[in-house]
Amino acid sequence: MKTLNEYLIETEHTYKYKVKIAGDLNKEVYNSFKLALEKFQVVASTKPKRTPIEKDPVGFPGLVNQEVNIFDIELRYPASTGQVQEMARTVGIEPNTIIVLDSNFNDSYKTDLEGIEPDSVKLETEFPEPSKEQKQASKDYADSYKDIAKELGNANTAKFEIAGKDAAKPATIDTSLGKESPLSKVKRPNIKDLIK
């Protein structure tokens, strides 16, 4: 029979994240970031890998001509991606230059993209000729706005069908300007009267 400690060791779970930091990431800042994450007990971390300088780095809108440092961290205690970003901010990394992804999310995203080949999506697809029903539907819907425009031709009157009312009676819309609002006649109380 296994002891409690053996069960705990077997069920130990760690939390993995992929961190992307745009711009220069020197060794001191990286080490300070790892030290700040020690409150979640860093189990492992990889050395940052740098991408070539890109004109528009993916995931960093507004940043131009930057390299991206990518590394993985593994923590013993769970932390939200926001908490990891906050730890980066405390060591001087700008919030708009860091992306933290949960490794499970990142791996599932890559798995979803594996089956899609770049050439499988074609933007200029030739569609078959429309059928007779499609042409008629297109014509019917294209002309439907003309009926609405005729009804709304006079801006001051519009015809609406209201349940239980005489539909032939046109509704009128008062568009006159310059009338006083009912709220403009409300008198404000005197402050001295309120203080008493």
Give a short overview.
The chain has 6 helices and 7 strands. With 196 residues, it is of the alpha+beta class. The strands form 2 sheets. Strands 1, 2, 3, 4 and 5 form a 5-stranded antiparallel β-sheet that branches. The chain has a two-stranded antiparallel ribbon with strand order 6-7.
CATH homologous superfamily descriptor of the domain at 4-107: ACT domain
Share of residues in strands: 15-25%
How many beta-strand segments?
7
Largest sheet: 5 strands, antiparallel
Helix content: 25-40%
Count every helix, treating DSSP H or I runs of 4 or more residues as helices.
6
**Outline type:** extended
Strand and helix order: HEHEEEHEHHEEH
Text of the CATH class of the domain at 4-107: Alpha Beta
Instruction: Return residue spans where pLDDT drops below 50 for at least 5 consecutive residues.
Output: none
User: What is the annotated CATH architecture of the domain at 4-107?
Assistant: 2-Layer Sandwich
Note the gap between the termini: 82 Å
Indicate the CATH topology of the domain at 4-107.
Alpha-Beta Plaits
What does this structure look like?
This protein is an alpha+beta fold and 196 residues long. The chain has a domain at 4-107: 2-Layer Sandwich (Alpha-Beta Plaits). It contains six helices and seven strands. The strands form two sheets. Strands 1, 2, 3, 4 and 5 form a five-stranded antiparallel sheet that branches. The longest helix is centred in the C-terminal third of the chain and has 20 residues, at 132-151. It is extended and about 85 Å long. The N and C termini lie far apart (82 Å). The model has no long low-confidence stretch (mean pLDDT 78).
